[in-house]
């Protein structure tokens, strides 16, 4: 982690020297303003970051050509800060200003335009403007496809981005088509064990899973695992994620023993990982419990849910929503086993937490109350 306060101290010293030696609108000042703005952005001081990026932009706007084109970079930087603040409309406004400058100064197929189109597309996607996001990602992709190697490989990133938008729209078949185009480019350019191929395989596996094509999802998840097993140490967290993904597909296919095997492999890695990664073992125990529930083995499900709860209880405050979820899971198993008094005890614990959490989570308490009602009804 960088020492931002120290960095800021020295950048401010540099600025002080420049300000004493140079006229107010001198281009050299922009370097200091940008450096200070970048540190403030990294520190989360977004208003200060904006202040200094805007000072830089003001100088570039009044500079003679071609230096005035640097104002486009300033607008891009300003947009990044607005994005970090969650102000997507202002980010879009700044990216569009940068694009306008680039469009006036550069040929239509210049790579910088592809970057601008990509930035605008990303903001539209964040705002839920999916058709607009597609429009600009496709413009970006068109430019990258016509650039010389190795820049043309950026078209694979464009196809990945297009796939993400289609996924967000629920159009999984189009998402799959775009991910496959990205994979084809990566396969032609990269060695078979390259980490980027693992990412592409994982993307395709996820879409197949969303489409209910579990056998295809398993096929691509196993390709991911093969790359990770060859490249990573046996206890690497990425392997735990791969094991988890394969287990989930096996569970969806009803291959419960296989699902357990891979969830347990995942859990074993998380248990030996350093804090806070080892807390993921609780998720593994929850997943193992789900499989046992699906197999009708409620006592083993209860055992796993209790292990998950113990981990959460040690790591989280008493009123954390995750504890409510654990109480709910344990209550449901007790209910399935006919342990009505235990089920009530844990449903009520879950309700107690959900009553004090934000309104968006209060719906969970309604489910608990329904279940409490069912338990009393069955008594």
TrEMBL record:
Organism domain of life: Eukaryota
Entry keywords, A to Z: Repeat, TPR repeat
Ranges of the TPR repeats in the UniProt entry: 72-105, 156-189, 282-315
Pfam families associated with the record: TPR_10 (PF13374), TPR_12 (PF13424)
SMART domains noted in UniProt: TPR
PROSITE patterns xrefs: TPR, TPR_REGION
Gene3D superfamilies: Tetratricopeptide repeat domain
InterPro entries assigned to the protein according to its UniProt record, in alphabetical order: TPR-like_helical_dom_sf, TPR_rpt
PANTHER family with a match to the protein in the record: AAA+ ATPASE DOMAIN-CONTAINING PROTEIN (PTHR45641:SF1), TETRATRICOPEPTIDE REPEAT PROTEIN (AFU_ORTHOLOGUE AFUA_6G03870) (PTHR45641)
Protein name according to UniProt: Uncharacterized protein
Provenance organism: Rotaria sordida
